[in-house]
Amino acid sequence: MAEVETLGHEETHDEHDEAHGGPIHHHGPPTGFIRKYIFSIDHKVIGIQYLLLALFSVFIGLVMSVLMRIKLTWPGTSITLLETLFPQGAPGGVMTPEFYLSLVTMHGTIMVFFVLTTAPQGGFGNYFLPIQIGAEDMAFPVLNMLSFWVTFVGLVVLVLAIFAGGNQGWDLTPNLGFPVVGPTGGWTGYPTLSAIGDKLNVPGQGTGMNLWITSIAIFCIASLLGALNFITTLLNMRAPGMSLMRMPLTCWAWFTTAILALLSFPVLLAAGVLLLLDRNAGTSFFVPGGLSGGSGTELLKNYDGGSPILWQHLFWFFGHPEVYIAILPGMGATSHILSTFARKPVFGYRAMVFALFAIGLLGFFVWGHHMFLSGMSPYTGMAFSVLTLSIGVPSAIKTFNWLGTLWGGRIRFTTPMLFAVGFVSLFVAGGITGLILGQTSLDLAMHDTYIVPAHFHLVMGVAAIFGMFAGVYFWFPKMFGRMMSETLGKIHFWPTMIGVYAIFIPMHAMGIVGMPRRYSQFTEIVNGKEEHIYKFLTSTDPLVIFVTISAIVTAIVQVLFFFNFFWSIFKGKKASDNPWEATTLEWVTATPPPHDNFGGKIPTVYRGAYEFSVPGAPDDYVMQTTPDETGPNVVTAGHGTIKGNGDGHNGHK
Amino acid sequence: MDTTVTSSSGTVGRADKTLDAFNARPLGGGRGGLGDGPGGPNGKGPGGGGQRDGWTPGSYRIGVLVGLASITMMFSALASAYIVRSGLPGPNDWQQTTIPSFLWVSTAVIVASSFTVAFALKSLKGKNDAAFRRWLGATLVLGLAFISSQLLAWKQLVAQGLYLASNPHSSFLYVLTGLHGIHLLGGIGGLSYLIFRAWRRAEVGARGEAKLKAFADVVAIYWHFMDGLWVFLFLLLFLWR
Fold first, then answer.
1. pLDDT, tens digit, for every residue of A32-52?
2. Which of residues 427-486 of A touch B (CB under 8 A)?
3. Whole-model pTM?
4. Counting Cβ atoms within 10 Å, is residue A154 exposed (0-12), middle (13-18) or buried (19+)?
5. Interface of A with B in 268-297 (CB under 8 A)
6. A50: left (phi over 0), alpha (psi -120 to 50) or beta
7. Can you tell me the ipTM of this complex?
């Protein structure tokens, strides 16, 4: 029967296709374990693979953050396990400053790239974008598989960076005692440390740094493949009737994110190539002349004339869109979930779409605000500052529209709803300090103090994580066919919500006092007594302890989530096809969705994505597939026939 | 599934007309069309429409255009770095390399290859299979000649004692030609596959033809882009400053 496809994978079709008399699917369900679960080209499996990769990564990143807090609070403390794992990084179990810096680097890199970029976009986007637009799969399924596995290789290389080799070159000798620490350049990898650290014998800046850059380059390629697929799928694979303005806001968010990734990751890739050459081929793109080696000799005379600021420009041209890549899918999920559980249409759908695009667009013109201290002209700084502050406008549009969506709704406080509301709260709380830091005059004083980590953790770290939590609790029933425990979910929510504020609000105060970032400790032992090196920080002592305890408690609470997640996969209550009484296409199909998403039928879409509480409708929600009486008389799937809907309720035109 | 709908504003699938022969349903602009208006009368009916087999001519074209946007960003970043680096004050480390003569050859060859690939596409549309294969073959030869010429240009640089790390201009010269070469190798891969398919069709019938046309189309787009990109890089490397 079916022909063999030419350009994608070569796989014969089974009778599944003919049974429905429908058109040919471009891939039938695979039967072998490996094709089904490992090298799968099914976007749903790939989405779950991305999620599991992110879950693994977030666990590592979380442990690292707790270690950092311990070092900051009790610098002399000895942890036996650390000595076993990292005899050089933590001799006697006490973390060295280099080890602390490598924790900073790895925590940042893992969280930004392998959690905040992979889970919301690669995970949820992969799983739900094709379903929500009524497609059977991504436009290029093999490319999709490739982008996951390239990401996986990137993660392996990154983990190797912690453990592999010596301080110089590409020494990949496996060292069973894991004697080295990872790269210490921070997630921004600024030269000259990242470029010539190995020449100066800085621990972790040899092989580790090479592997770190390689890992990022690999990740760039994976993200580019993914973004290409997302954009093509969304533009070309929508079901009949799924006009752009009928799409769920999640799809708009994934689409905008894909555009950002598509245009920003190549810049980082280019910069990474140049940095690798500076390190290994002796070029001088980023390394200035006149540097001497560690012993004060003329060791580095072959470098001349490069500019570390050039790296900063290239990096942040990527780096700022990157933080929107992390947060935009969370915004989409929040809009989606708020509307569903407020039983109201999204307030100002069109404005939400334009605000997403405005944020994405402006994100490309504000990278300079990360570099106010790099000696840029005040006029340039002014321009970047004004552009940065202007992002407040679309952000406020989104926030007020979220509030407008909630206003007067019949709110159902389910766990996903709680996390979505939490997202709004964190986004506002974290975003507001963006307006402070975006001003050159204030940033000059506050740059590289704790107010910066406080700001970005709230707004793009924790808020994005809350978006993911909301997404997991919301979509879990569709993905795994079972409900997560609501009770455990709520017990998970409240300590997490309070905990993250307890961690990050005091950090603002520390920053204003002047506590610098990236320092591994602020005390030294004088005459057998621990004393502050910087006396003005003495007042922050109670805050530091409070933050650390909050961090440890909040981290432990996450065990509830992991438990709930894995327990519910096997033991959760069976989920119906549409447990939340939501309207979009993923709730039209079976739970979990069949291999081709809609069981051979093609949903036809008749209305916008958020038709809740439509006057005259029998239920308080109308599925996107429910035809109008006046529309073509076709019922394809889902909720059956709702009649008498009348005119004027066909969505957001 | 009865989509009695006129195609919604389809700026994507311009090549779709060719498919009507075998496709009972109008393809519309891709699936849902790019416009935000619903397709049906009074904005109530379903828009879009199309065959649900995971392939439309639009997907290749969108895919390659999106990919080229990304490649454009990468080379824009490198070009910006080049411009910034060339203007940095300080020790006079920047030594402008004279144009290796083989780069002229490369430029001529790749510009010529743009013509051959255009002729190939024209032959395919004129249903002249033999000419199609011939022009594709010529393009492939020219592509390989370009790569060889670039390597010979590198050899000329080495003969002058100019290596990757010699000075910033030579660094950029190697990096830009190298990265362009890698991307062109991708084009050569696509071209080779196209030639293979031109000899041995994967699918017969109108659908197979449409698929081949769509693939030939994107290979040509990519190839022209690589040509233009090289001309840009050539001008940047030797005319800037």
1. 888 888 899 999 999 999 999
2. none
3. 0.88
4. buried
5. 269-271, 273-274, 277, 281-285, 288-289
6. alpha
7. 0.88
